[in-house]
Design goal:
- By secondary structure, the protein is α+β, with helices and mostly antiparallel strands.
- It has helices spanning 57-64, 73-80, 87-103, 114-132, 144-154, 160-178, 190-197, 209-226, 234-237, 250-271, 277-296, 300-310, 313-316, 319-323, 327-338, 345-354, 365-378, 390-410, 419-426, 433-443, 459-471, 592-602, 633-636; strands at 12-20, 23-34, 43-55, 382-383, 387-389, 484-485, 498-501, 566-573, 580-587, 613-619, 623-626, 644-649, 662-664.
- Helix 11 packs across helix 15.
Length: 665
């Protein structure tokens, strides 16, 4: 038990931590008014409120069936439990514990006994589980967990109504399996492709901008409602590229695939058909108007997809086309791009989604994936004594709760169906990054030496380029390469990795729209999500679930900044995919060997020894700071440079580095 603060007059006061029977609690003191029958004086009393901070799995399960647990405990647990156990294991533990109450109770007046209390709590738990987290029980083809639950419920008349609920869910799953096709794709038939892809069959410029935005919003909302929030957790999302997890997070992949399809459609309309610059400029203006309508509909997903496409190299390099785009359209484009600048992305998006409550809203899912991945990297899964870090799960649940809230808002849309626009959107063949850039060079052969990479423009460069295009002045043709950060892998080895396009300039792109596609990615479906351009800023939009956090949990480690003896660093491994990195938590206690071991584990590098690798920090100017083997990395690193590290295999059987850091050119 750890206490030791003086009681103050604040209505809520963090008091400390308290251990009790395998559970670590965070203790809060609250002052509440006492009911007065007479008199004008208001009296208060102080009560102690305990919230679970860490515990063993067995104690967490037992708390599920104990009355009086904090009101958010069950929701947090059911939202995140698959990060540390399975549905089958949890169901077995819950039913075994409930059965033990029944076996130990022989009192006819069950409502007055522990068994009666447990049964009411069990009923509430299973009702919530089956109602709001029904996807946990989807396990085709047999759905064994749901069958086991039905078998248990049939034996208890008091739980008969839950049995009917479970059987109905089982029938729904069975019907879905029997008529299962490709749940998240909408292919066209051969005849439709011929009709809708024929030149002149449908002219994009003839579609009303509002209708196009409505159809994009309808498609985005349908997919976002089907997304399973748990699949967004960092511990799940970061595992999807392993060979055995190719079907993992299918609902999230579908949302990202839709985002990439919109981006591809924008690029294709500008590059597929030959046309003079004024016609292409009119197409750009049209897409800007569609983006503006998406903003009005609060569809941030398609809005960002359109902006990403227009800022891609293959489109933005079309100097002759942009030169004839109207000033009004450029101004609108600039204002919309401001929404997704590194400093304003989360704040502006949240303000838009909170406007006009009761109306539909589709968020940019990448913002939430980034926040959850950063949380997973910043906070440990277990704490002292191997206890499950339930405080981490609370923080993750806060983000998942917002996703569920937004899914509910998507049901508020009342949009018209535009089948001809939907068919037209799906008729475009996906272009690779290389194909897009080659077509762009055919449209406007290069005059200046444009870079071969397919990055995006930062906001300041964008503004300067706009002025240059409008004024007709000479430019240098150069641009700073952005710091593109992906939370997934494009590597061919199928391992769990994260991608980093290393900037050629030390400047960071602070105002940039991040596309969900990677340069050089050979996959047909690119499900890559880029993080905020300012990872060092605090995690956005984390609203507390009506209770206070302990002081030790209020400051999260961040990238490129040392806070409270910890920070986030990025580590890559020297290989054919040398630009792939993983984010790991670095504390003031971490030595070089432990950092190397964790980095190799995150990169799924097996059958190697940590002593075969050397850790270096990547510095500007092509230099590297070699970290000694026995050094404390937190204090040995250069804090004025980006927190990017690389693991290099030691050459041959050379002696280990000397115990002093050195500069490597």
């Amino acid at each position: 038990m750890r206490m030791g603060k003086e009681i103050t007059m604040d209505p809520v006061q963090e008091w400390g931590d308290e251990s009790d029977d395998g559970v670590l609690y965070s203790v809060t003191l609250r002052r509440i008014p006492v009911e007065q029958s007479q008199g004008s004086f208001v009296q208060y009393k102080t009560i102690k409120v305990r919230s679970v901070k860490a515990a063993t799995l067995e104690r967490l399960v037992s708390l599920l069936l104990e009355p009086g647990t904090d009101p958010h405990f069950t929701t947090v647990f059911l939202s995140t439990y698959r990060a540390f156990t399975t549905t089958q294991q949890l169901l077995e533990m819950v039913l075994d514990r409930a059965s033990s109450f029944d076996g130990n109770n022989n009192d006819d007046n069950a409502d007055q006994t522990g068994s009666g209390v447990c049964k009411r709590t069990l009923s509430s738990l299973l009702s919530l589980w089956l109602g709001e987290f029904s996807e946990d029980f989807r396990d085709p083809p047999h759905h064994s967990c749901l069958l086991a639950l039905c078998s248990y419920l049939r034996r208890d008349l008091q739980l008969r109504w839950l049995c009917l609920h479970a059987e109905k869910l089982l029938r729904r799953f069975s019907v879905a399996e029997s008529c299962r096709g490709n749940q998240f794709s909408f292919p066209l038939s051969g005849e439709e492709v011929e009709n809708y892809s024929s030149p002149g069959r449908w002219d994009f410029l003839t579609f009303p901008s509002r209708d196009v935005a409505e159809e994009l919003t309808r498609l985005d909302a349908d997919l976002f409602v089907k997304a399973i929030p748990f699949q967004c957790l960092g511990c799940v999302w970061s595992q999807r590229d392993k060979k055995e997890n190719k079907h993992l997070a299918a609902t999230i992949r579908a949302t990202i695939s839709q985002f990439n399809s919109v981006t591809n459609c924008v690029i294709s309309t500008l590059l597929r058909q030959p046309a003079p610059p004024p016609v292409r400029a009119s197409v750009i203006e049209k897409w800007i108007r569609v983006a503006q309508e998406c903003r009005a509909l609060k569809n941030l997903s398609s809005l960002r997809a359109i902006l990403s496409a227009l800022q891609s190299n293959s489109i933005f390099r079309l100097k002759k086309t942009w030169a004839v785009v109207s000033r009004e359209s450029l101004s609108i484009f600039e204002q919309l791009s401001e929404m997704f600048s590194g400093e304003n992305c989360s704040l502006s998006g949240r303000e838009i989604l909170l406007q006009s409550p009761g109306c539909g809203a589709v968020p940019y899912l990448g913002t939430y994936l980034t926040a959850l991945t950063m949380l997973d990297s910043a906070l440990p899964d277990t704490v002292q004594g191997g206890l499950i870090n339930f405080e981490k799960r609370r923080r993750e649940c806060e983000v998942l709760s917002q996703i569920r809230q937004l899914q509910g808002s998507c049901l508020q849309y009342k949009l018209n169906d535009h089948p001809e626009i939907s068919s037209w959107l799906r008729s475009y063949k996906r272009l690779s990054e290389r194909e897009s850039y080659d077509l762009s060079q055919e449209v406007e052969p290069p005059v200046d030496s444009y870079p071969a990479s397919t990055g995006t423009w930062n906001h300041r460069t964008l503004a300067k380029k706009m002025i240059w295009l409008l004024m007709g002045s000479e430019g240098s043709g150069s641009k700073s390469s952005p710091d593109l950060v992906s939370l997934t892998s494009s590597g061919s080895n199928g391992s769990e990795t994260e991608d980093l396009t290393v900037p050629s300039s030390p400047r960071r792109a602070k105002h940039m729209v991040r596309p969900w596609v990677l340069s050089g990615c050979s996959r047909d479906v690119r499900d890559d999500v880029f993080s905020s351009s300012e990872p060092s800023s605090p995690l956005p939009f984390l609203h507390p679930l009506q209770h206070r956090r302990s002081a030790s949990m209020t400051s999260l480690p961040v990238y490129n900044q040392q806070i409270d003896d910890s920070c986030i660093v990025r580590v890559s491994v020297e290989s054919s995919n040398g630009n792939l990195y993983k984010s790991i938590l670095l504390t003031s206690q971490d030595k070089t060997v432990s950092v190397i071991q964790r980095a190799l584990q995150k990169h799924n590098v097996e059958s190697v020894r940590s002593e075969d690798f050397q850790l270096s920090q990547v510095l500007p100017g092509g230099k590297e700071l070699i970290i000694p083997d026995k050094a404390n990395v937190f204090y040995a690193m250069c804090t004025s440079a980006d927190y990017n590290f690389i693991l290099r295999r030691r050459r041959g059987h050379k002696t280990p580095p000397t115990p002093t850091a050195g500069w490597k050119k």
